[in-house]
Amino acid sequence: MEPTSHAFIANARAELGNPTLQRALGLARTGFPARRRQAIDRLPEFEDLREEGRGIKDHTLAHLDYYLELYERNVSAAGGRVHWARDAAEARAIVLEICRAAGAKIVTKGKSMVAEEIALNDHLEANGITPVETDLGEYIIQLRHEPPSHIIAPAIHLMKEQVADTFRAAHRELPPARQLDDPRELCDEARTILRPQFLAADVGITGANFLVAETGSSIIVTNEGNGDLTQTLPPVHVVIASLEKVVPTLEDAATLLRLLARSATGQEFSSYTTVSTGPRRPGDLDGPAQYHVVLLDNGRTDLLGGEFQDMLRCLRCSACLNHCPVYAAVGGHAYGWVYPGPMGAVLTPALVGLHEAGHLPNASTFCGRCESVCPVKIPLPKMMRHWREREFARQLSPAVYRTGMRLWAALATRPELYHALTAITGRVLGWAGKARGRFRSLPLAAGWTSVRDMPAPEGRTFQALWAERQRAPGGRRR
Amino acid sequence: MTARDDILGGIRRALGRGPLPAEVRAELAERVDNHRRNLVPARAAGLDPPARIDLFVAMAEEVQTTVARVASAAEIPAEVARYLAAENLPAELVMAPHPALEAIPWQNRPLLQVRRGRAEPGDAVSLTPCLAAVAETGTLMLVSGAETPTTLNFLPDTHIAVVRAGQVVASYEDGWDLVRRLGAMPRTVNFVTGPSRTGDIEQRIQLGAHGPRRLHVVLVDEHEPVSHGSPVG
Questions:
Q1: pLDDT value at residue B231
Q2: Which residues of chain B lie closer than 8 angstroms to A283, CB-CB?
Q3: Which residues 6+ apart lie within 8 Å of B146 measured at CB?
């Protein structure tokens, strides 16, 4: 999809004023973090597993060429084929060629962020092939021609009434007066509509949560079972995955799987974790006759060896989204591309350019929750800071902001001047705001005061109070 | 230059090195060949077999799997018939053509219609064996093969799985050991933890999104050796 991340500020403002979206986000704010907490409290080893998960990913990335070659050898040995794609256009062309060779008319799809990244559906449609999303959330947003707003819950921005309207508009063959008030009815309708599509599909396309070098396997994690019907029923199974998904062994995958479901949905384990290796075997009664893997780079190798390499550990669990106050306020669409929230704020500038996505790393309070819940300990705030520094260095930020930052830097690097100025400012503001205790407007602070009051300072600065405490009898001394 | 060479070259350039030296490659090959276990949670690892089975049942029931325990394989047909009647389902099913299931005395229940094969669109109920059951999270481990078609695990509305007590293992890693003993990796290894579900609409969990609406485990409490992957631990 075409990124609209450059319009983040306008997008965010519009989403803040969208009452339906705010209701939907309200449900997400509480649900995901509470369920994650509960699952983690039941597993005393969780912190140690995070450390191991980080170690596995770091080890793999340091030897990525070795593990990708081993993975490819083992896919081939099992009768499958690996296709390497430098960028989105190459990946789309490879998938289209496989579909054409299979004479495909209908292609079912399991949920795949990489397929979103390369805008695969548009390309298939433009070439006369009908892609059918089968994950319930993805199906809903496909009918609405919307991008996903969340990595694991793509329709999280919608309320059930909107889904009902979408289904009524799309499923014209069903009686218009049917009842669609409840998620149960909506779910059953999607099941009924999609079942024949699963059976009619000529090609099934899935993503991959992990690729296992040791065995040449791809692993998908789902709850609905749509991914399994997608990859079992049609004669051709295409896996599309970015290259950092590879891990060395099945044991390594098991460790990361323990982290994934708990971090994502707060489940002990997702309903279905499926390990696929090659096409069907002689004697098998079902399964695809062909197995293809499209390995996508699309800018990821450029992140190796640099300050953004840690981002390649990402499992796409969504924990950082679910715990982000900014995501919770504006939702996923405001971010303007495929990957939202803190992980998107770091990854999107790397994949579509800082010029397009420079706002995203600025959309953070640096509260640090994203890093604290990340199952593989990605230092997301630190990397957002790196992007901000680059944005500044490349003069991409507005002149006012840059001048302000320079003034701030001049002040902050001269402690005496800083202390003197803050003490004076604090006293002046304290005196001026004494009567009301707050300010409705302040010169140079409209960004703050246009949406909330500024409290008036009540006394001396923290630094002054701290110094006094250090001096006081019985006070701690350095 | 092919995309493959370009990407692999790009990786090496970014990491600031050429192809890995032979001794590093040997170390990595050894790491893979040893496939050492990482940290395995203590939850199930330290339990004796009866406690491990109890944990499996508790974890499975937590995710809406129903479990019926029977004393021997001879009791399976009666349990299956009882379950189907209780769920108001017709007394017919499609069964994996697997020796362990063929050995069950189905002739004791002549009214139960049993077809052997893969699942077809009209099939309402399937019956499968499993390779193992993982106590840690109440998870079934099923592998594909000529005697165990994968469609049985996903296409019918109701999936009944037979688990022998000796097949209940502690962890996924125990399961991998069993898979490796099969020789080549099967086309598919399915970890199944409860029936199909979705929370995609307002995060309200609905069972039976696309896969089975019901998952029923018949747990056979006999400890005879199992033909299809022997128990460990």
A1: 39
A2: 145-146
A3: A281, A283, A284, A285, B97
